[in-house]
Amino acid sequence: MKYLTTTLFAAALSFAPVSLLADPVAATEKKEEKKADQEIVVEGNDQMQFNKKTLEFKAGETIKLTFKHVGKLPKVAMGHNFVILKKGTNLAAWAGKAMTAAATEYIPADEESKKAVLAHTKVLGGGEADTITFSIKEAGEYQYLCSFPGHFALMQGKITVK
User: For a Cys-Cys bond, which of 71, 92, 108, 154 suits 126, CB 3.0-4.6 Å?
Assistant: First the structure.
């Protein structure tokens, strides 16, 4: 009987998918993410200010940006996000559309506005953080802002890509 059980087990293994036969340690390891060329932290506060007004990157670099809301107020009262717009986007017009886009975290849902966004974080309340990874391939100046209603007037900055 022991011989029959061993034979049946061996036969079953021959039909098993290769993934089951692979090294179990290797199968549980995560794929290694591409390492960022530059990591940066930007903060927003309850006084509607970013701690950085200018950023500089090299074209094509992979950037890992962590945005932290260092204030204490909740998202409904003082939510912040970090939105990078394509070169040449009309900031005021885009922000005007964003003010009415609460359902999509203040990123306008129309195609033209969505295409103007290079990268963005989610809207955060006090004490929260979000990380995005992006790359800007073309040299030039790009604007970033908080698109929470009314915040862009104070919460904006410039990215220079060389």
Answer: 71
